[in-house]
Each structure stands twice: as structure tokens, then as C-alpha cells.
Amino acid sequence: MSDLCDKTATELRSLIGRKDISPVELVESCIERIETTDKALNAVVTPTFDHARDEASRAEKAVLDGDDLGLLHGLPIGIKDLEATNGILTTLGSKLYANHVPEKDQGSVANIRAEGGIVIGKTNTPEFGAGANTRNLVFGATGNPFAPDKTCGGSSGGSAVALATGMTALASGSDYGGSLRTPAGFCGVVGIRPSPGVVAAEGRPIGLLPFSVLGPMGRTVDDAYLLLQAQMGIDPHDPFSTAPDVDLFAPLEAADLGSIRAMITPDLGGAPMSNSYRSIFAKRVEIFSHYFASAENGKPDFTDVDNCFEVLRGVNFVAAHGERVRLHRDKLSPNVVDNVDRGLAYSLEDVAIAHLQQSQIARNWLDLFNEIDVVICPAAATTPFDHSRWSVNEIDGVEMPTYMRWLAITYMPTMALASAVVLPCGLDDDQMPFGIQILSAPGNDRLVIEVAKGLEAALAKNTLTKRPIPNLDKLSV
Q1: Rounded CA gap, 350 and 450, in Å?
Q2: Which residue is catalytic, options 22, 94, 108, 155?
Q3: Spatial distance between the Cα atoms of 6 and 169, rounded to a whole number of angstroms
Q4: Residues facing residue 76 across a β-bridge
Q5: Separation of CA 356 from chain center
Q6: pLDDT beneath 50: ranges in the chain
């Protein structure tokens, strides 16, 4: 790949600031890439090309006039279709909102625009973000850029695909049980799940449940960090929102991995994990573990995590979508209906116990970092599956009790309120992207991003662990 749209966002922003390239050139490069590859993938479901061209012309004039330029000035951004965008179709992947056009941006989008980001389109998502297969009843499925008949993960799948193929310079995501991390792992890009409150989520259905967060996606750690800096901002409508950490505005430095104590775990002590992915992870650890001050095998304490996740997710879905299921069951995807039905079956005692379990999990997680700095594990349990299926039903012959259980490797850290980064780490046995998670305590965002940057550089040195690139020739029309 050698087109302008394939350069990193940080490089592009520097080139724009130096007047070496025009935002107009960059937007046209991204539009051309979308037009030549997205028919095979279905990632950018609502293109906004006319808007992007107008914004690029204004961005070009600002550069030539010597105006102050924002962090993202002139960069084409894909916005996940769960995020409200002023004047741009926002369907939430649902037939109920197939014609919904918001009259204002949500906070994270407004912040991106304020820093000069150009919205080039909305990226596909499962209905209301329910599920790790980006497939809905409005736009259909989004294919993986390494094999279009397979899933790209979800729910930020369209964003991950757009990034992996150069359709956008950056893309937004959100994450509850792995909605940002799973597609990053499946598509060979970087995703950051920040601590609750770092990026205000003022539209969260239950304000006092902190598990759903907004976050950035990019092709590199530096790129994702750049978008995170733009997304951040306090909003009193999110009770967890806090003034941005000053450290998160400082230039990003790679951590000295030789001073970092890492816990290595293939399954966080109990997540379903395919034998293939256990083997791949062990082999990749052999390649990079020597960079750390220590890299010891361990098992974090996630006692009762499956129950507390299922119950609290059910509470969230009943609150957000209970009335929709009651009135429009036949128009909704099976994942949304399943979550609501499951949630309605729980008792008050079930919910109370789940809150106690989650509190203990979060405290155990915090205590872990008295002895270590980060936890490293796979980003997914198995290779991407055919996107005609809604989910993973079994792994190595073991049936999954719920459609979410195969995602335990990502929802377990959510219950601990972990900060996280997913890094590409080569290909799996099926020649699909393989990713790893770097995890730490909530509030350790700067640390976990610095470690990710340091490890990214180390992984790039080895052909088995460097970021994989999709074959665009096979996708072009």
C-alpha cells in the first residue's frame, strides 16, 4: 500500500501542518479507497463525501491562512453509527431508527469536530451495539478485510475495517464487553478502552453503570492516542466524567519495558479459549516476554464474573431496550431480544448479588497492581467466524451457555473497570489477525498506552508479530 490514505494519522497531521499535503488531497484519497474497496466489505454505511469535501476545503484555507490548527485538523474520521452526528443519518443499526437524523452532535463527536476532524462517514455496528458480529437488519454484515465472508468483530466493526483498509485516518469506537477490543484484534488495528470518565459518555442509558465507555481506534498506538486526546472532555451529564488527566495531553513516550512487571495469562484464569489461540499466544509470548523486567504466568481472581456480567448487562438492556422489545420485538435483532428477555428473568436479589460480585472483582483487580504493572492476554478466544452466524456457539466442542460467553476474555476486564489497549500481534493459524490485550488498573491509562507503544515497537521487529496488512487488490472493484 502506498496511497496517501495509508499513512498514519500522526504523519498525515504533521504533513498537513507543514503544508506538504492538503486536506483536500487526503479526503479524496480516502473517498477513492472507500469507493474501490467498501463494496466488498460494507464498513462505511453512510458516506458523507459532500460534507467531507466542504470541510476539507475549509481546512485547507485555514492552513494557508496560518490559523491555529486543532489536533485532528484535516484528518478524515469514521464515526461509529451509535454516535449522534448533527445532520447525518444515525441508525444505531436498528430498523427503528433507519431514518433518524440527529439535530446535534454528542459530546465526543463535537470534540472531534472542534479539533478539526472531518467526518467522512458513519461506520457499521450491530443493532444498539449488541454482539461481537457487526451485522444488522438495516445495512447487513460488514466483512473482515482479510476474508470478507468472515466477521470483523463488533460492535465497532465498521470502524476497525475502515482503518485496516485506509478508508479513514482514524475512527471512533465504544466498548462494553469488548465492542472496541474484539474488532481491533480481528482486523489488525489498535483500540484503546479508556477508564470510565476519560471520554464522557453522556448518553449512557443508566448513568451510574460505568461499564460502557467511548474510545479511539487507529492503525498505531500514536494514532489512537491522538484521537483519544481529541475525544476527551468533561460533561456533567456523565457522572463518571472527570477533568482530563494532564498526563494524557503530554506527548506520548514509549515505556521502558525493562522496568515493567507483566503478568502473562492465556485466559485471565477462566475465560473460554480455543486450543489454537492458547498455542499461538504461548508462542508469541516467547517472542516478546524477554523485553519486560518480569513476565510471570498468573491467574487474576475473577470469581463469579460470568454471573455478574450477565446480570448487570441484563439490567442495562432492560433499561435501554425493554420498551422497544415489548413494542417492536419482530423488528429487532435476536441479540437485543435475548439480552432483554434474559434481563427480565432476574430477580432483585440476583441484581444485588451481581453488584456485590462486581465490587469484589474490581477490588481484587486493583490489589493485583500492588505487585505488577500490566496484565497481557489474548484479545479474542477464537479466530473470526463466518459473519452469517450471529455469534460463537461452541469452542473446541464445548458449547457456550450464552451468546456472549465466548467474549469473556474481554468482558472480564470490563467488570474490573480496567484500562486496556489491544495491539495487533501477527496472524493466527487461519491467516487472520491475532491481537493481544495490555490491561491495567482504572486510572492507569497513561501507563497502559505507554507500555502498548513500547511493545508495538518490539512486535514490529518480528515478521510473526508485526501488524498484518490486508490484500487490497483482492477487495478492489
Answers
A1: 39
A2: 155
A3: 8
A4: 118
A5: 28
A6: 1
- Single out the catalytic residue among 172, 174, 179, 241: 179
pLDDT of residue 327: 98
Q: Which helix (H) or strand (E) holds 386?
A: none
- Number of separate domains in the chain: 1
In the numeric block, which cell numbers belong to residue 320? 435501554
Domain extent for 15? 4-474
pLDDT at site 278: 98
d(CA 212, CA 415): 10
Active site residue 179: yes
364, three cell numbers: 481484587
- Taking the model in full, what pTM does it have? 0.98
Classify 104 as helix, strand or coil: coil
Which alpha helices (H) appear in 88-197, and where do they start and end?
107-114, 157-164, 181-187
Annotated catalytic residue: which of 7, 29, 80, 241?
80
Run of H or E residues at 141: strand 140-141
* CATH number, domain containing residue 275: 3.90.1300.10
Annotated catalytic residue 80: yes
What's the distance, Cα to Cα, between the start and end of the chain in Å? 16
Amino acid, single-letter form, for residue 123: T
Per-residue model confidence (pLDDT) at position 243: 79
Which three cell numbers, joined as nine digits, stand for 178?
469488548
23-37 vs 49-64: helix crossing angle, rounded to 10: 160
Residue 2: per-residue pLDDT: 58
Count the alpha carbons within 13 Å of 18 in the hemisphere toward its beta carbon.
Answer: 7
Separation in Å, CA 291 to CA 80, 84, 255, 256: 35, 42, 11, 9
359 part of the active site: no
251 in helix, strand or coil? coil
